[in-house]
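INFO worker-7 received task bundle
INFO bundle size: 2
INFO processing item 0
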Amino acid sequence: MTLFRQIYTLLFALFLLVMASLGYVLFTEIQSFLNKQMESDLNNTSNSLGIMLVPYLEAGDVASAETQINVIFEGGYYQEIKLTWLVDGKQQVWQNPMSIEGVPQWFIDLDLFDSIGQDTTITSSWLQLARLEIIAHPGLGYHELWRTMTNAAMVFSLLFLIAIILARVGLFWILKPLNHIAEHAQEIANKKFGIKMSLPKTRELASVVQAFNSMSEQLKQIFNSLDDEVEELRKKNLVDQVSQLPNRQYMMGRISGWLSEPKSGALIIAKMDWLKEVHSKYGYQVRDETIALLSQKMQQHLEIEAPSVIARIAAYEFAFIITSSEHEQTRKYLQTLIRTINQEISKAGCKPNSDFALGIAERKGHMSVSDILAQADNAQQKALQAKKIFHWFESTEKQLFTREQWRQHLSEAIKHNTFKFKWQPILHNDTDSVQQRELYCQLELDGKKIVASQFMPYIELLSLGSALDKCLIETVNNKALLTRNLEPIAINLTFESINDLEFHQWLDQLLRTSALKTRLCFDIPEAAVYSNPDACEALCNIIRRYGAHFGIDHFGRQFGSMSYLQGLRPSYVKLDQSFAYYGEHAHSSELCRALINVAKGLDIEVIVTGIEESSQLERFTPLKTHAYMGYISPPIDIQF
C-alpha cells in the first residue's frame, strides 16, 4: 500500500472514530434528556389532573370526570390512563396503541425508552376518592430522538464528505514532493541521470531531495566519463591523428562487417603521391595541413553522392567504402572524388590529374575481405602502370538481373510472400541456451537460391524496405513462428521502415492485437539512431508500449556519443561484428571493454556478433558479455 493510502486510511479511520464518539455522546444525552422530560411532564399531568378531578369525584359525576380525562389524554403522549373509584371500585381505562408516525419500526423495536408510570391517590381532606394511574407514551421520545439523530447524521455525513475531500487534496499537496522523490528514484534505478528536482518547502524533504540530486549528478558524471573514455579510446585506436579520419584498423574491421551484411557498393583505394611533393617542397607541417584540409573536403563533397566510409590507411593512401550504391552512383562518386582531389592539388601548387591513382573494385556476390582488397589493389596497380588516374577492376561475374527485373521479382515475392526463412540462434554465454532467434530470408528464383546479400541492396534502392519488413512480421504472426519455441524472434528493420510514419502506424495496430507480442524483438541499426533520432524514438516508444522488445544492431560502429542509450533504453545491444576482428589486437580490447561497460552500466544486455570460432569467443569471456551469435552456430531452415 502506498504511503498516501496509508495516511489517507488513517485519517479516514480517525475521523470515523471521532464522528462515532460524537454521535454516541449526542445520542445518550438526548435520550437522557427526553427521559427526564417525559418524567417531568408525567408528574405535572398527574398532579394537575388529580386536582381537576376532585370536585367531580366528590359529586360522583362520572361523565364530567371522563370529559376532563379525555381532554388530557387526547392532548398529550400517554399510553394508558386508569381511574379507579375507591367508593365502589369502578374502573375506567383509556389506552393509546403503540404506533408512532415518521419513525421506522426497527428503531422502535430497539426499546430505547423504559416504561414510565405515575400512580396517584386523589383525596379530599382525609377522604380517599380515587386512584389515578398514568403511563407515559414513549412516542414523543422516539420521534424526537429519531428526528435529532437523522439531522445529526446528515450533518455528520456532509462534514465527513468535506473532510475526506479536503484530506485527499491536502495529502496530495503535502506528499507531492515525496511523489517526485519516488519518481526520481525510479528514474535513477532505470539509469536516467541528470534530471534535477526543485527543493520542496518541507524542511525534512529538502535534505532528501538535495541528496538525490547530488547522487543523480554523480551517476551522470560516471556515465559521461565512460562515454568520454569510449571517445578517447576510439581516437587513440581507430582515428588517424592528422586527417581525423578512421585509420587502417577501423577500415579493415568495417570492410569485414560490410561484406557480411546484405549490401552493395564498392571499395576505392587511392594513392596520393602528390603529397610527397608537398612534403619535399614545404615540409611535413604543410603536408599535414594539406592532408587535414583534403580530408575535410572529401567528407564534405562525397557524402552528398552516396553514404561512405573514408579512411587514411597509410601515409599517402586513402580507402573509400561506398556502403550502398549501384554502378552509376559509384561512377558519380568517383567523379566527385577526382574533382575534389584536383582542387586540392591545384591549391597546393601541383599539377592536376597527376601523381595519384584510384583503384575501384565493386562488390559482386559473396566476397571476402582479402578478395575485395586484392581487386582494388590490382586495379590501382594497373592505373599506375598505365599512368591513368583511375582503373575499374573488371569482374567476370555477370549480373543476375537488371534493376527492373529485380523490381518485378522482389515485388512479386513480397506480394505473395514466397520467401524462404531461416533463423539463427543467439546463445547465452554461460549455459549455451538460446536467448533469441534472429530471422533471415532468402529467395528462390528459377530454381536458384538467392541469399539476402544479393537482393537486399535492391530492396533499399527500390524503396521496398517497409513492404519487406511488413511481410516478415506478418509471416512471424500468421505462421505462428512464436509458438514453435519459447525464445523471442528478432527482426532486422530497414532504414525505410524506421523513417516511415505509415509503417509506425501499421506496427502499432499489429502489436495492439498480437497475443505473443512480448516475444517479438526488433533490431534497429545504430546508424539510423544517429541519422534520425526522432523517428527511432517514436518507433521505440510504440514497441515498448505493447511489451515488445528492441535492440541496437551494429553497436559501436558509429563515431559518436553513447548518450542515446539513456533515452531509447534498448533491451539489448549487438556489438558490431568488426570487434570480433579487432579482438585479435590487444589494444582493441580496451575499446570493447569500455563500450560494454557503457551498456552494462545501463542494465542493457550485450550480445557479441560475428563469432566463428571458439577462440574468438574466449577473447570476450573476460569482458563478461551476455550472449553471442555467428556462424559458430549457423542459421537453421524454417520448415512450414
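INFO item 0 finished
INFO processing item 1
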Amino acid sequence: MDRVHITDVTLRDGHQSLIATRMRTEDMLPICEQMDAIGFHSLEAWGGATFDACVRFLKEDPWERLHQLKAALPNTPLQMLLRGQNLLGYRHYADDVVRAFVERSVAGGIDIIRIFDAMNDARNLRTAIEATRQAGGHAQGTLCYTTGPVHSATQFVTLARELVDMGAQSIAIKDMAGLLTPTATRELVTELVDALDVPIHLHAHATSGLSELCHWQAIEAGCRHIETAISAFAGGTSHPPTESLVAALSGTGHDTGLDLVALQKIGLYFHEVRKKYQRFESEYTGVDTRVQVNQVPGGMISNLANQLRDQNALDRFDAVLEEIPRVREDLGYPPLVTPTSQIVGTQAVMNVLAGERYKTITNEVKQYLTGHYGRAPGPINRVIQRKAIGNAEAIDVRPADLLKPEMDHLTRDIGDLAQGPEDVLTFALFPEVGRSFLEQRRDGTLEPEPLHLPENTQAGCPAPVEFNVTFHGESYHIRVNGSGHHREDTRPMYVTIDGMPEEVLIETLDTIDTAGGGSGGAESPRTGKKSRRATRPGDVTTSMPGTIIDVLVAEGDTVEAGQPVLVLEAMKMESEIAAPIAGTVRAVNVAKGAAANPDDALIEIDSPDA
C-alpha cells in the first residue's frame, strides 16, 4: 500500500483562517491526548499569526504555549510556519536573530519548520534552512503558489531544486489563496515528483471550493503528504476536512490508516469549542470563487472589509478588489501572502480612497521597490517606481546582507523585562506590542480580550450593550463585548460591528472646547491641542484612519511641498504623510501613538503668502 500521510492544521491554520487566530491554549490542551493517538504525520500548531495573536490579543506567552503543546503531544511531530528572513514579523531580521529564533523554536519542541518567502526569493530562505538543520529540525522548503504571466510549473520546479540544494529535506506547495485547479495541481506535482528525491507536501486552502479535487489529483500524481483541518475548522478559507479525506482514501491503495471514528470524536470536541469564539466569525470566510481572479487570500478579504467599514467606504469594496490585481502587476506579480498581501492590499485601499493612484505610497511599497524585500518575480512598473523612490538605486543583494547583528542591542534595549532569550525574540518581532506584553506580565496585569458580553452593567446606569448607529445615512449594528485595562489615557473596548470583531481605543478628553468658531473639537491629553476638521490648503490629512508612528516636524519648522511630516501606520503598513504646501508649521495637533482620522487637520502649515 502506498500510504498517504496527513498533517492536521487545526491548531494553527484552521483557527487562523476562520476565527482570526483566537483559539486559546486552554481549548487546545484537553484534546491533545486524543490527537496524539491518531498517528498524524505532524500537527501544525505554531508559527504564522499565532505568535502575534498570543501576545497582542490572548495575552499568552507563545513560547509557553509551545512548551505545553509539546508536553501534551509527545508522540506527534509539531510543525510551524516561518516567513524566512521575516520570521513571524513584517520586516527582514539580521541573520543572528533568525538563527536564535530557529534554535529556540526547535529547543522548545518544534520538529518541522516550513520556511517560505513571500517573494519566492530563495536567498531569503537560506539562513533559516541552514539554522533548522543545524538545530536538529526538519527544514521544509516552500513554494508560494501563484499564477500570472511570470509564473509557471517549470519556474516552481527550478525554485524547488534550488531549495533542496540549500538543504531543504522536503518541499511544500503552499496554495495560500486557493488558486490551484485540479489540472494545474496534477501538472505541478508530476513535475516535482519527477525532478526531486524529497517528499512533496500539498497545503491548499479551500477558498475557491476546489481543494478536495486538487488533493485527489496531487495524490494521483505522486504526492504522499497532504494537509487538512478537523471538520469543525475546515472549509471556506481554511482547508479540506480531515475526516472527509480519510474516508475518501479508506480502502484504496492510498489508505491513510487513520481511525475515522476517533477523528469524528475530535471533530465533535472542536465543534463545541468553536461556539466559544462566535464573535470572531466573519462573513468573509466561506467559499469565494473571486479568488481565482483577484488572488486575495481569505484573511486578507476580511481585513479589507474591516478597513473600508471603518471609513464608511464599504461600498468601495469591489473597487478595491479590482485595484489589487493592478497594484500586483505594478509590483511585478508577487504572490499574495504575508507580508506582500498586506503591502499590495493596503496600497490598493489607499489608491481607491484617495481617488488617485499612488497619491500616497506606503513605506513598505517604497522598501519593496528598492529591493529590500527581495527580488520581484517579474518586471516592475518603472513609472511607479520612479514616483515612489525617485532616482534611488534598488539593491540587488540579499536584503539581510545589509543588516548588522541585532541580538546584542535588542537584549540591552529590553533589559530586565526579558527573563530569557525567548523574551528578547518576542520583543524583536513586535517591539511595541512585545514590550507592552512583557511589562504587563511583570506587573501581573495580563488580561485577554473578552469572549462574551459582560453580565452586568453599572448600577443605576445600565448602558446598552447592543444598538444601532447611523452615520451619513449608513446604519451599523454595534454589540459591546467588554473592555480592557486602561492604557495611559485610553481604554480598549471590544465590540462587533455588523458581526465583525473590532478593538476600539477610547481616549479620555480632559476638556471640551465649546467656544464657537464653528470647528468645535476637544483638547487631547496626548497633545494639548484642539482637533478640528481640515479646511485650509495647508492642513495635513490622511486618507485612511491609523496610528501616528512618528512626527517629523515641530511648530515653527519650514517645510517644502511634498516633504514628509508624519508617519502613519494603517493595516500594519507605514506611510509617510507629506506637506500639501510649502510654508511654516503653525501647529502640530498629534503626537506619536495618537489615532489619526481622515479629514482631521493633523498638522497646520501656513504658506509664505498668508
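INFO item 1 finished
INFO post-check item 1: The longest strand covers residues 474-483.
INFO post-check item 1: The first helix runs from residue 10 to 18.
INFO worker-7 idle
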